[in-house]
Amino acid sequence: MRRFRESLTTRGAAFLASGGVLVVAGILLGQHDLSRIGTVLCALPLLAGLLGRRHDLSLDVEREARPSRVVIDEPAVIGMTIRNPGPSRSPVLLAEEHLDYALGDRPRFVVPGLASQTSTHLEYAVRAHARGAHRLGPLGIRVQDPFGLTLRHTSISSDDELLVLPRVEQLAAGRSLGRGLGAEGSVPHRVALHGEDDQSIREYRDGDDLRRIHWPATARTGELMVRQEDRPAKRRAVILLDTRAGSHAGTGPGSSLEWAVTMAASATKHLLDFGFAVHLLTTDPDRESGVREDTELDAALETLARIGTSPETGIDSLLHAASAATAQGGLVVAVVGGLDDASARALSSLRQPGGPGLTFVIDAASFVREGAAVPRVAGADPRSTTASLAASGWSVLTVRPEMGVADAWTSVAGARSLVGAR
Description:
Immunoglobulin-like, membrane, 10 helices, six-stranded mixed β-sheet, elongated, transmembrane helix, DUF58, transmembrane, about 425 residues, alpha/beta
């Protein structure tokens, strides 16, 4: 009975109420015709409800996003195929696609009646205003009887999504960024016998083929030098992204987390373009280590698209993983919030002597809107973190909301040579 009451439209409820009144009035006044009219009015919604129940609303929905991954503010077209798997014809349906708020308004359709085992194809456009894995669906459908007395509602669940990647800004090369080819140790001397990328010179080691001795280099250095025809190893770059909830503030595109994600995405692509072997480290509570490591651009951007804030303890796992990743040296780029003294020392130790280290310290308090609570991390202060890292030889910038990602990179990367990245 409750389901029936919920299915009544305003018109159906009016019919039922009016019919009831007429039936009672007819009985009290002895007017049988009035009671008959009331009975008909009451019966119509009941009959409409029963007729509506005979239609099976079990439909199959398949979606395809074109393209399947977009960048913020890039449009996408969602193709939706609705199929009737039942044995009987489906009625004409009113459909509404439920979408995340970031994808815009909910599209509405009229789905024509479908014969058994047939389908129809519909399309709608979306434009995402925020990164993330945005859910598509469920598809809400409703069917109304011809008299408009009852309305049935149901929804078709869905696990489809549209992946919206973070923005990637063009970063300047910085002062003497150089290319990312070199060795993870002493930088090999290059020669141009068959192209500088094809050969390098290194010191002789026991077991080396004597035919590979490079006599001009041996004479010049006074030590046996051999040709190494392998392609030089890529220099390593390790990027850390601190996503602790207490390190970030603000909401939407202007939040500190979005700034940090954009910087991490931009730095990853920038350094990969310069030939570095990039290791992006982010917190992942679902992994045993608590850290996710990405080395390919597509995987890194997907990770950054899905990432949210993490527990406060995540910084310890992140710094531990970074310590292993930087053991052989390399460029270190850290996007962090305020750190306590122990974490600041751990981060400082990641930069090898003479190697470059860039840090962007988020001043979360400056991202807080008026009247909102200021995030706190026990013992952490962005100003003391900045001072501690600067004293350890890092290039550091305290980040505030008015700073652009590209300008912040230029300010820090241009402050020192990055050629020493090994």
